[in-house]
Structures are given as C-alpha cells and as structure tokens.
Design a protein that fits this description.
46% of the residues lie in helices and 22% in strands. It is α+β, with helices and mostly antiparallel strands. The chain folds into 2 domains: 3-73, no CATH class; 81-139, Nucleic acid-binding proteins (OB fold (Dihydrolipoamide Acetyltransferase, E2P)), CATH 2.40.50. It has a 5-stranded mixed barrel with strand order 1-2-3-5-4. α1 runs antiparallel to α2 (27-43) and α2 (27-43) packs antiparallel against α3 (47-73).
Length: 140
C-alpha cells in the first residue's frame, strides 16, 4: 500500500474513533467520505481527485443525511409526562383568540392556551402541542 491508501485508512479510523467518543453525528460522515477516496487510491494515484471526492462526499453526506439521522436519534430531546397531554381533549374556560392567551381545562387541570382560531368558553378543544407552559389547541 502506498501512502495515500494509508492516509485514507487513517482518516477513516480516526473519524470513526472520534465519533464513538463524542456521538455528535459529525465525524461519522468524514469516515464514510474516506471510503470512496480509499477505493479510488487503489486504482489511481491522482491525489487531487481523491481529495475532491472526499470533500464532495463529506459535504453531501452532511447536508443530505445528517438532518434525517438527527431527527431519528433526537439526541437532545427530553421527554416529560406533559407530552401525554398531546391529543387529549378538554374544554375552553377563558376565551381564546389568535392574538391573545386564553385558558383551557384538560384532565382537571387549568392551562394557558393559544390557538390560531377563536374558541368560545365552553367549547371542546384538542391539544395539538405544548409550548412552554401553554397548550396549543384547536376547536373540536
């Protein structure tokens, strides 16, 4: 093996070990990008082509796959019991308007509530999401 093959193998292993140590889902893409460059180095001695291939594959991997992988792993999301309120129904206890905060009662608890529609007192609501300490609701 000549030095270019060792270089790409070293980049692959280094990036892999860094990823195992940090788990930030960044250096894994550099490890993957080193593989095609290593394969090209087996057949071609042109270092410029190998570097360009490495850079292009790394950028494409970062831009095209990282958002999906991060969404799948959700590394910084902390689930709480409040997430169980999403999808539940309740009743409006204070007028909710698109530009103001109202209130809704869900599971015998009163919550501040917002919506993009007018919801009158007494109307039933469904919890769509939770933003801070406010329920995001819709009229049923």
């Amino acid at each position: 093996m000549d030095w270019m093959q060792w270089l790409w193998l070293g980049i692959f292993l280094s990036a892999l070990f860094i990823e195992f140590g940090t788990a930030n889902m960044v250096s894994i893409w550099f490890a993957i990008a080193a593989i095609p460059s290593f394969i090209v180095s087996l057949f071609s001695g042109n270092f410029v082509i190998q570097v360009i291939l490495f850079v292009v594959v790394a950028i494409l991997m970062l831009l095209l796959t990282r958002p999906f992988v991060m969404k799948y792993f959700k590394t910084n999301e902390i689930k709480t019991n409040v997430d169980t309120y999403i999808g539940l129904t309740g009743v409006c206890i204070k007028l909710i308007e698109p530009d103001s905060i109202g209130a809704a009662k869900v599971n015998n608890r009163e919550w501040s509530a917002i919506s993009n529609e007018i919801i009158e007192v007494g109307e039933k609501v469904r919890v769509l999401d939770i933003e801070g300490v406010k329920l995001i609701v819709e009229k049923i």
